[in-house]
Each structure stands twice: as C-alpha cells, then as structure tokens.
Amino acid sequence: MSPKAPIDLPVIDFSKLGLNPGSNIEDQWDSVKSQVLKAAEEYGCFKVMSTKISSELKNGIMSNLEELFALPLETKMNNTSEIPNAGYIGKTPFTPLFESIGIVDPVNLAKVESLANALWPEGNPSFSKNIQCYSEQVLEIEKIIRRMVVEGLGLEKYLDEHLNSSDSCIRVIKYECPKTTEAEIGLAAHTDHGMIAILYQNQVDGLEVETKTGEWIDVKLEPDQFIVIIGESFLAWTNGRIYAPNHRVTMAGKDVRYSVGTFTAFKAGYIVKAPVELVDEEHPLLYKPFDFLEVLKRHQEEAQKSSEKPEKAFAPLKAYYGA
C-alpha cells in the first residue's frame, strides 16, 4: 500500500461568497478563485469551509440517514432509476461495508417527496425538506467553483453553456464498521466519472485521497467543512489543466460512517469536449468527445462482468475515451 502523506489539503472559505461575482467584494472573489484553481490543478480536491449551511440542517440530514438506512432491504430497493447507478446500491463482495441510495434532481422537492413516499408509507417531510434545502445550498457552492475554474482558465465565453450543461444528484452512503480489529476497504480506489463531487460526513473519518506522486492523504473534516473532489469529466473538459484524484474509503474502529455526496455531471446527450483554446502542441487532446450517459452505460456493463476482476468495476473514464 502506498505511504500516507504528512500533508493536508487546502481549506478555502466560501462563507461570504455568492454565485454572482458582482455581488461580492472583488478582491475576495479573485482571492478565492486563485485558491480554487491552484487546488484543482495541484490536488484535484480541497476542503470548503462554509457557515452558510446551518448545523441544524447538517445534523438533520445525518439523523435522516440513520433512519433511512435502518429501513428493511426490500424497502430500500424501491429506490430505482433508469439512470445507471442512480438507484439503490447494496453491498457486494468488493464493497461489503458499503451501501448507498441515489436521489436524482434533489433540488426538485416533488422528486424527493416521490422517493420518500416509496420508502415510507406516509412519506417523510423532514427527510424531503432537508434533502432539498441542503442540495440548493451545496449546489450554489458547486456553481461558484465551476465558474471560478472557467474564469481562471480564461474561458468566460463558454461559461453560460458550461453552467447549463449539467445535472445533479445526491448519493447518501453508509459504511459499516469492520467486523474485526483490522482496517478494511469501504470503497476501493477510483476516480469519479462525473464533474464535481461535494461530500459531507458525520464525524467519522475514512476518506483518503491520492496525490499526483502516489501518496495517500487522510482527509479529516471539521463540522463546518466539506470536501470537493474533481471528476474525470471536468479534467477531460479542461484537457488536463485540472486534476481528478484517485480516492478511497478505509474503515477502522467501531463507528458507522455516514456521508452525503452531491454529484454534478454533464447532461445526457451533451457532447463533452475540450475547448479548442486548451488544445495545442504542448497540450494534445487527452479525451475523445463523449456523451456522459454513454460513459455510465459502458461502466455499468463492465461492472456487471467484473465478478472476478474488481478493477474493471472502477475503471477510469480514460479507459473508455482516452484519445
């Protein structure tokens, strides 16, 4: 196993920022933008500090997750989706500690309520309201990050198209504690195929991120912190100007880990390709144009064949669409 790095990820404060740069103090916006681009280039991830999302809401989400995962397996399996990997995912031989539930378009209260009605006979207003409210606030941070990356790369003319090219979902996750005193892999090392993930957790650590030099960083989050992880689709769109890190979850101790991930990806049918300004002799094209939905379908097909080859279940996007 690769050594753990004695370093920490950058912490960037978003507490005073709004989505529209004009509503912010110019120097503050530019300062945070510089930090975001540097972290995205160097680590492909960073910690976000935000006091805008209340402790009451975050604690409510975690309470909802405990209630949700305590439901019977047959009930949780009512969470289905036509989008690959967007419904309920149960434990497998490769991920025996892991299970998760996806919620597509979580800012749409009606869609969240529809899921709640499928899981609880009389719905669950607290769950629905908390998920919808949390999603709205986290996705504002996500849009600020994308705007800053696009601006930082000098690609303002693509900004509106870029911001309108995505869909989002939430995936809530439970990691059981190991059955022995030995640490166990909760989720194997992988890059995200999507654009950006923003993760919040209960105060049980376990997430690890790999640096460009092959060292692993233990990610420890304070109660007001989230972690942002760049996905391979965003790396592809920037033609490698930013980084998409390998990451994994290692479980140890006797505490269950809950996390909630807000994932943004390119819309089905949108062809992802690097802007021409980012392709030249020094930076040759890294990825062929692709439709993200086709990526998910190919990934699901490979994962279903991977009963004896777990590495296929976590193959990077580049394995399918590298130039």
From TrEMBL:
Pfam family, one: 2OG-FeII_Oxy
Keyword Iron: yes
Domain Fe2OG dioxygenase as annotated: residue spans: 165-267
Keyword set, alphabetical order: Iron, Metal-binding, Oxidoreductase
Record PROSITE patterns: FE2OG_OXY
Organism superkingdom: Eukaryota
Coiled coil segments of this chain: none
GO molecular function: 2-oxoglutarate-dependent dioxygenase activity; metal ion binding
Its biological purpose: 2-oxoglutarate-dependent dioxygenase essential for auxin catabolism and maintenance of auxin homeostasis in reproductive organs. Catalyzes the irreversible oxidation of indole-3-acetic acid (IAA) to the biologically inactive 2-oxoindole-3-acetic acid (OxIAA).
Similarity remark: Belongs to the iron/ascorbate-dependent oxidoreductase family.
UniProt-recorded name of the protein: 2-oxoglutarate-dependent dioxygenase DAO
